[in-house]
Amino acid sequence: MVKEMKKFMTLCLVALLALATLAAGCGGGGDKKDAKGDPKAEKVLRIGCNADFAPFEFQDVSGKEYQGFDMDLIRAVAKEMGYKAEIQNLNFDGLIPALEADNLDVIISGMTINDERKKKVDFSDPYYKSGLSIIVKKDDTSINKFSDLKGKKVAVQIGTTSAMEVKKIEGAEVKEFNSSADTFLELKAGGVDAVVNDRPVNDYYIMKSGVTDVRRLEELLTSEDYGIASSKKKPEMKKQIDAALKKLHDSGEYDKIFKKWFGNG
């Protein structure tokens, strides 16, 4: 009788284990995968940025939300890829190591595509072309390219690439200021003929301030392409990102995001 009872209890235990296994396999979200390939996790794209580079990435006044051109773009990219965007704020020099350690899936942080970084990560197709640009008064027709700055008064931010490059222009009178905002004020006051800053800084100023009496020249001095970085161990990620970027361009969504942060450029 005892042997029969033990046999019965064993069969019951096996049956319970089988039911538990079946229930686990049929649980909600079982077909979802995150970017690491975990079949039980929600589809999450782990995104790294350094939220200290307005207008590309920064935190709002509450310190809770990440905003900026990059942030809107990567959320749209993640949506196209079928992922939920999960953004992490890290020091810039820690972004690539975090990606290499598989703590991130992608990086978007105004990161310039260059040969040194390409040895460590895969970059998407360029999503933004940066470089130094000129702002002048709208009615000033004497300045249309960088070589026209010869003999002109030019405002730059001290210690920047802008300051270094404009000083190379023969005959240009360089006036250095502590901030980019001060360079714009000097142009408005008529103290200089032109302002030279990074293109996104100039575009953001024109868009946010609503000024209509200035114009940005199309020519760029130096040229830098920004890209979305992903791990070399996951080449499919780059393909998915590039496909998503193409869809955003084709649909006009990219242009909407660009206009939100930089105006018509």
As for the number of domains, it is 2
Approximately what portion of the residues adopt beta-strand conformation?
15-25%
Distance between the termini: 88 Å
What shape does the CA trace take? elongated
Q: In angstroms, what is the radius of gyration?
A: 26 Å
Helix percentage: 25-40%
Q: What's the story with the biggest beta sheet?
A: 6 strands, mixed
Q: Helix count?
A: 9
What is the overall pLDDT average? 86
Spans with pLDDT under 50 lasting ≥5 residues? 1-32
User: What is the CATH superfamily label of the largest domain?
Assistant: Periplasmic binding protein-like II
Helix/strand-derived class?
alpha/beta
CATH topology of the largest domain: D-Maltodextrin-Binding Protein, domain 2
Query: What is the succession of H and E elements?
Result: HEEEEHEHEHEEEHEHEHEEEHH
**CATH C-level of the largest domain:** Alpha Beta
Number of strands: 14
Short description:
With 265 residues, the chain is α/β, with parallel strands linked by helices. Helix content is 38%, strand content 23%.
Textual characterization of the structure:
The chain is of the alpha/beta class. It folds into two domains: 120 residues, Periplasmic binding protein-like II (D-Maltodextrin-Binding Protein, domain 2, 3-Layer(aba) Sandwich), CATH 3.40.190.10; 94 residues, 3-Layer(aba) Sandwich (D-Maltodextrin-Binding Protein, domain 2). 38% of the residues lie in helices and 23% in strands. It is built from nine helices and 14 strands. Strands 8, 9, 10, 11, 12 and 13 form a six-stranded mixed beta sheet that branches. The chain has a five-stranded mixed beta sheet with strand order 5-1-6-14-7. Helix 2 crosses helix 8. The longest helix is centred in the first third of the chain and has 24 residues. It is elongated, with a radius of gyration of 26 Å. The termini are far apart. The N terminus is likely disordered.
